[in-house]
Specification:
The protein is α+β, with helices and mostly antiparallel strands. It is built from 1 helix and 4 strands, in the order E-E-H-E-E. A hairpin with a 4-residue loop joins strand 3 and strand 4.
Length: 59
């Protein structure tokens, strides 16, 4: 079972929940933050194509 461990978004008003949320001003910054979190947390980034990327642990 996968677990969402972080959310990176440009649209803070559309996300919520128990995982840490990283709000970025634009798409480029969002992708950079998601890429770094993916590497740091040894997880996978999944782009929802709506201004939000979820970082998921598949272990």
């Amino acid at each position: 079972m996968a677990k969402i461990i972080a959310v990176v978004t440009t649209q803070h008003e559309k996300v919520g929940g128990g995982a840490p949320i990283f709000i970025e001003p634009d798409e480029k910054a969002m992708q950079q933050t998601a890429f770094l979190l993916e590497k740091i947390l040894d997880a996978s980034a999944h782009d929802l194509k709506n201004g939000t990327i979820v970082i998921v642990n598949h272990h």
